[in-house]
TrEMBL record:
GO biological process entries: defense response to virus; maintenance of CRISPR repeat elements
InterPro entries (alphabetical): CRISPR-assoc_prot_Cas5, CRISPR-assoc_prot_Cas5_HALMA, CRISPR-assoc_prot_Cas5_N
Protein name: CRISPR-associated protein Cas5h
Source organism: Anaerocolumna xylanovorans DSM 12503
Keywords linked to the UniProt accession: Antiviral defense
Recorded superkingdom: Bacteria
Length: 244
């Protein structure tokens, strides 16, 4: 199986939870659906009617993500502007004022390790070339459009599935549903485990169709688990969050 491995980093990032359109809190990891948007931006797929999402679903996109640096978050005041019905115009029409100051949470100086595979190897090779040359159709970001990101291609080569029933040390998050056997999570004092729920797949009109509960380490360490599917590439061991 051909696979791309690259690093994604930025000064700040904000990844909104699925249950709201304007949340002051952020996910720790970039959710799978946000990775669809990032890859769609690199390839130049349009956002209208969620065309980028349907094209990548047809291509059999699978994504995995992990933390390379310990998780850091901060809160900053952000001005929200009501753009409906000319309420943004500085007149007496908006009795609450033009802007609404809101404290937003951001991840700070985060660096992610991302793995990408597709059944459409032609499109996968095109993605690898664009990542290598830093030739993106649209600007890429860490969630919000103004939080620009950088990428560094690590490898584009074969990845191999591991056949191991004992504990595996993963560089990425893993789906809770993929864990198997008794004591499937290796507990020790060096690994700070965290669990977050993301949207795994959308249906029409961006309505969540499937969810995934992801397990990862917030201090940038490898997690130690027993899981159904894991893959090896270069010195990394990883799992996909939307692997069926």
């Amino acid at each position: 199986m051909k696979c791309i491995c690259f690093k994604l980093k930025g000064d700040y990032g904000h990844f909104k939870p699925y249950y709201t359109t304007s949340s002051p809190t952020t996910y720790s990891l970039m959710p799978p659906t946000a990775l669809y948007g990032l890859i769609g931006a690199v390839l130049g797929f349009p956002k209208e009617d969620n065309l980028y999402y349907s094209k990548l679903e047809e291509a059999g996109l699978k994504v995995g993500i992990g933390l390379l640096t310990p998780l850091r978050k901060t809160s900053m005041s952000t001005n929200l502007v009501n753009t409906k019905g000319n309420f943004w115009v500085p007149t007496g029409r908006n009795t609450n004022g033009v802007r609404t100051p809101t404290r937003y949470e951001y991840v700070v100086g985060q660096e992610y390790l991302i793995f990408v595979s597709m059944t459409d190897e032609i499109l996968l090779e095109k993605l690898a070339d664009r990542l290598k040359e830093h030739r993106f159709a649209y600007s890429i970001s860490m969630g919000l459009a103004g939080l620009l990101a950088e990428v560094e291609l690590i490898a584009y080569e074969e990845a191999y599935q591991l056949n191991q029933k004992d504990y595996i040390e993963l560089d990425t998050a893993v789906s809770i549903e993929e864990l198997t056997g008794e004591n499937s999570i290796g507990i020790n004092g060096e690994i700070q485990y965290c669990r977050e729920r993301y949207v795994k797949r959308f249906s029409d009109n961006r309505i969540p169709a499937e969810y995934v509960d992801a397990l990862f380490a917030t201090n940038g360490k490898k997690i130690k688990v027993k899981c159904k599917k894991a893959y090896s590439m270069k010195e990394y061991t990883f799992a996909f969050l939307n692997d069926d």
